[in-house]
Amino acid sequence: MTRKLILSSPLLEITISRLCQELIENQIQGIETVILGLQPRGIFLAERIAKELSKHLPETPPIGQLDATFYRDDFRRRDPVSPNSTHIPFIIENKRVILVDDVLATGRMVRAALDAMTAFGRPAKVELCVLIDRIYNRDLPINADYVGKSVNTLSTEKVLVEWTEQGHDADKIWLITHP
């Protein structure tokens, strides 16, 4: 197994700041924006985005956590998993929802998240924001609206995002190759 560093501080902070500027530029007049971090690792990026947006907006968009474990099409085929919590303390009906995840790979998790989200209302618009887009890996025709960095990957490679919130010494994103 080999590890190649893709992104770390301070470039990671600059990337998150750029994503926030794009989110601000694409605001829809008259429609409230809310942020949903996809469990488990998308919540760390969502919290960072909300914190950065609070520096530039008079009102920070509400943030929630969405777990789509039971909505995955491979749920019964995978090893037993323990679901994470869903916490959405607001209505998403007629709002601009920014779905946030750390890595976009096959698109299956995003499809599951869209299904899970319908239990909370029908948004006016849904946009996807990811830190890493693993291009050439998609199973479904899903693309992100906001991308921190695109990475060419093979099926034998994995992207690992390490956040300080998870107990790591520093924020780092690795490309891991299995022989």
From TrEMBL:
Entry EC number(s): 2.4.2.9
Top-tier EC class: transferase
Keywords: Glycosyltransferase, Transferase
A GO term, aspect molecular function: uracil phosphoribosyltransferase activity
Gene3D superfamilies: 3.40.50.2020
InterPro entries referenced in this protein's UniProt entry, alphabetically: PRTase-like (IPR029057), PRTase_dom (IPR000836), PyrR_bifunctional (IPR050137)
Domain of life: Bacteria
Domain Phosphoribosyltransferase, first and last residues per copy: 6-152
A Pfam family assignment: Pribosyltran
NCBIfam families with a match to the protein in the record: PRK05205.1-5 (NF003549)
Protein's name in the database: Bifunctional pyr operon transcriptional regulator/uracil phosphoribosyltransferase PyrR
Gene responsible for this protein: pyrR
